Amino acid sequence: MKSIFNYYKSIFLALRSLWQGMKLTGYYFSHPKKMLVQPYPENRDTLVIPSRFKGNLTLIHDAENLHACTACGICEINCPNGTIKILSKMEEQEDGKKKKVLDKWVYHMGLCTFCGLCVDACPSDAIAFDNTFEHSAYKSTTLNKVLNNPGSKLKSTVK
């Protein structure tokens, strides 16, 4: 007898939940000015993106194509999804010592959860998120990006 009661109770609760949802939908249908939906892409000129928005990950370069990445790999270690792959090489310096230098900074945007742990962990503040929000792509291979510009070098002020 208790199982029959629970069966009808679950049907009643489902119908009540459905009624509450339909009531809310009906309210917004009859009051369209209260909706928070903005037309897209027609509103691009007036679109305001908050400064803390996390869009694409970028390796910051200055006007002379210099960056601050020392290829330490801390961002790669802190990434929970394996989104970042840093490829480095050893170059001989003028004084004869060898130093690790950034060769390729690969970012797999399709794996990224935009958590920001890599940006927080970077000791030289070489990476940041920009405000780009259109991430859709027809091919998943276009989501794999090399962030360091061709011919870019490490700033001399970074150790």
UniProtKB/TrEMBL annotation:
GO terms for cellular component: membrane. Residues 57-89, 103-132 form the 4Fe-4S ferredoxin-type domain. It comes from the Bacteria. SUPFAM superfamilies: 4Fe-4S ferredoxins (SSF54862). One of its GO terms (molecular function) is oxidoreductase activity, acting on NAD(P)H. Transmembrane segments: none annotated. Keywords: 4Fe-4S, Cell membrane, Iron, Iron-sulfur, Membrane, Metal-binding, NAD, Quinone, Repeat, Translocase, Ubiquinone. This is NADH-quinone oxidoreductase subunit I.
